[in-house]
Amino acid sequence: MGKMLSNVAILVATLGLSVGCSSTSGGSVGPSKLEMGAHIEKGDESTPKTAIFVGHHKSEDVLKAIKRAALKEGWDVTEYKSEAVIVEKTLADKTISSTIIYHNQHISGDSEHAPMGELLKLRHAIVEELKKEEKH
Question: Do residues 19 and 116 touch, judged by C-beta distance below 8 A?
C-alpha cells in the first residue's frame, strides 16, 4: 500500500513538473478565474507548481469536467479513487495512460506513460470544461 501511494505521488509530481505552462503565487484567486498554473500559498509544497488551479469547485463537479474533457479528446476514463481518474487512449496501436488527480483546489497528473502533446491537449480541454461549468 505504501509503495502504491509512493508511486502515485511520483506520477503526480512528474506530470506537474512537465505539463505546466506557468505558475503564480500569493494573493487569492476566485473560482471564476481558472489558471493554467498553480496558486500556491507560501510554504505549501504539496501541490505541483504547474497544476491547474480550479478554485472552490466541488470535487464531484471537477471530476465530471475531467471526464467530459477526456472523453471529448478520445480518452477512456476509469474512476480510480474519490479524487482521481485514470485516462487511457490508443495511438498507433500503443496504449497511453495518465492518472489525473484533484487535490487541494488543483488538478494534476502524471506524464510517465503518455506523450506530452496529448497531455497538453487534455489539459486544455479540462480547463475549457471547467470554464463552461463556471458559467452555469
Answer: yes
What is residue 37's three-state secondary structure? coil
Q: Which residues contact 55 (CB under 8 A, 6 or more apart)?
A: 29, 30, 31, 32, 33, 34, 105
pTM of this structure: 0.65
Whole-angstrom Cα distance, residue 59 to residue 16?
19
pLDDT of the residue at 95: 94
Residues 6+ apart with CB under 8 A from 45: none
Q: Alpha-carbon distance 84 to 114, whole Å? A: 17
Q: Which residue in the block uniquely carries the three cell numbers 512528474?
A: 14
R_g over Cα of the chain:
14
In order, the DSSP letters of 12-35 are: HHHHHHHH----EESS---TTS-B
- Helix, coil or strand: residue 135: helix
